[in-house]
Design goal:
The protein is of the alpha+beta class. The protein has a domain at 12-27 and 35-42 and 63-131: Alpha-Beta Complex (Aldehyde Oxidoreductase, domain 3). The chain is 30% helix and 38% strand. Strands 1, 2, 3, 4, 5, 6, 7 and 8 form an eight-stranded mixed beta sheet that branches. The two termini are 26 Å apart. The mean pLDDT is 92.
């Protein structure tokens, strides 16, 4: 495991990630003139249907300290691998209803190719390595632990 050299930026936010928060994050980058490309991934809770049940939301939990360290390691690896000017990662904890955003990954680079490749890398690494758990809550008041697909 990599030793953390600087204080990691907090990733977790309670509840859904608001559209205004996303818009404000984008707007703050207009003055950074070395940026030539942005790419964004927004993970949204789907109203999946399973065995005649429909998902109403997901309740996210995590081993927060371990997850924050893993987010830090993924972030630093991405900075080493791609020519990233700026990066932001936010993930929800608690209840996120269908249609709401639970994951916001935002990278800014000098060129398009790095932005696109960095987003794909980051989202795949997050899904594979970060200990975040989702309990799918159904409209009939039942629930089950979510499996990543």
């Amino acid at each position: 495991m990599e030793v953390i050299k600087k204080k990691p930026k907090p990733v977790f936010r309670q509840g859904p990630i608001a559209p205004q928060f996303i818009a404000d994050s984008i707007a703050k980058h207009a003055s950074k003139t070395s940026i030539g490309a942005h790419d964004i991934f927004l993970g949204q809770v789907r109203a999946d249907a399973m065995e005649d049940k429909e998902v109403a939301g997901i309740e996210y939990t995590a081993y927060e300290e371990m997850a924050e360290k893993e987010f830090y390691n993924i972030r630093e690896a991405a900075f080493d691998k791609f020519d990233i000017v700026c990066m932001h990662i936010y993930h929800s904890l608690g209840l996120v209803k269908t249609g709401e955003i639970s994951l916001f990954v935002f990278v800014s680079t000098s060129h398009r190719k790095d932005a696109v490749e960095a987003i794909e890398y980051l989202v795949n690494e997050i899904k594979e390595k970060v200990p975040i758990f989702g309990k799918e809550l159904f409209t009939d008041d039942t629930h089950q632990w979510k499996e990543n697909r």
